[in-house]
Amino acid sequence: MPEIRNKYMLKTCAMLITLALAACGGGGGGSDAAISAPASTSPTAAPTPTSVPTPTPTPSVADNTTLWPTSAQNDAAVQGKKPAYPTTLCASIPATLTTNAKNLLDDSVDAGGTNSQPDASRIQAAITACPSGQAVKLVAGSAGQNAFLSGPLTLPAGVSLWVDNGVTLFASRKPSDYQISGKNTCGQTASSDNGCQALINAVAGNNGLYGQGTIDGRGGAVLTSGIYANTLTWWDVGALTKTMSSANQNSPRLLQVTGGSNFSLYQVSLQNAPKFHVVASGVNGFTAWGNKLQSPTLAYSVAGYQCASGTTPTVSGSANITRASTCFTPDTVKNTDGIDPGQTQNVLIAFNHISTGDDGIAIKAHTTGPASGIQILHNRFYYTHGMSIGSETDSGVNNVTISDMVVDGYDAGATSGFRIKTDDSRGGEVKNVTVDGLCVRRVQQPLLIDTYYGNASGSSNQLYPNVHDITIRNVRYLNTTGSVYNGASAAIGVRGYQSQGQTLPAYNITLDNVVFDSTPSWVSTGMAYAIPSYGTISMGAGPVSFASLLTSASGNNAFTVTDNRSASAAAYDCSAAFVSFPSGKSPI
């Protein structure tokens, strides 16, 4: 961030870690090809950092916030909340690997499962030795090397990781590197998905993951251990859950932040995640600002995601366990959510670009605590399943604000604009949610509130959904030339809970200045519980373009509509909302 970096000069400390760390400031590093330690191996002990040389200024770093209009940058809600880069480095580690023409690592680097995580031990040793309040920085090598290859890393409270501009931290493609002892086998499907560590496992504590560099999960790379070694990719394993009875994929996340307070994710590109990109769980104070999340990138796809027949994962019919796919689309990279704040309080997610194979953002609250005090401001979604609350809401979701959001579904399947999704296997109270400023096009379900997500009903969990006090304001749905989701093909829905002797309507739902270019339809359902049903909606004070659709359903299936429209208002302005994904690695 320019203003911070001009105000402070980086203090550096040279660390000597045998054959691993070079002194701060880059310089040549010896080859670390022989260093390969699994995540469970204790890192090499590092000596206490030596005295620091005179600090020198570093180049200013452009801020992704500038990709938004000035009005967004000047929003009072974000002033003073932008993260700052660490001001003190404990170690600067030079890269020894180099990417190829596709911005990937050559397969020969870690073929056969050998040399699968050559940089893990030296990065972890530097992190372990780093004093609280300082950062380890991954930088380019003296001869232009720009890549690291690692298995799981642990980031303790107080210590940050900084990936420098032009540098990529690649994830191991060897499932056994991520294996959690005693859990399901990483790299396979099973009844639960608890078998793999994340690539970066952090505890919050005034720390973060920073830099304009890249974290690449290599989701489209062929695995090098396990029953699918040299046969399937991470994303092929994910596709098996659509064609086999095992419902969950055991694949690693890119970043998992668990517990503690105050963690920042700032300016990073996270891409090609085998599964979720970013998950925060049980954190008090989480900020994700100015990041770019995308799966798959052009390295694993083609322009416009126009993959040739027979090159993509099999998602229906007979399971594929014999060939690695060579081209991927967002529809075929299952469960690659963008940012999921779960059981987390005091959250700010701002100025991010997200294009993934599942929810762009999904707020969750499961078992251990509520999700509350969440601000989601100035974000752009591309291929995603949209902005979601749920499906796990059993610990309660409260006080959520979503503003200036853009969702372009690109006519992909299972796309949504804004939705609340839960059921009685994981339901709870969801309240005090405000959506104010939403531009949507080319999605299947622009607005949906449903307490029967996944057709779950009659669960023995008896975690009853209770959704109320939801305000949806300043929303525009645009018809787009050639889209399959224009007019009535775009569907909306409201369905409260009405099972197991419980009636919990979705109530105090307000629609204010919600304008579609043409009248949508109701979401169709194969369940006995109709859509719309068990809900109360208030229209106004501003216009609701599909008022006739709502009022014609009022009075049926315990669904009621009150018309409080009294003011005329211009439709929410989306004329400059839809912009290209800002990356040369993007297929769109």
Automatic annotation (TrEMBL):
Superkingdom: Bacteria
Enzyme class: hydrolase
Example GO biological process: carbohydrate metabolic process
Start and end residues of each stretch annotated as Disordered: 32-67
Molecular functions (GO terms): polygalacturonase activity
Keywords, in A-Z order: Glycosidase, Hydrolase, Signal
Bias (Low complexity) ranges: 32-49
Family in the record: Belongs to the glycosyl hydrolase 28 family.
Full protein name: Polygalacturonase
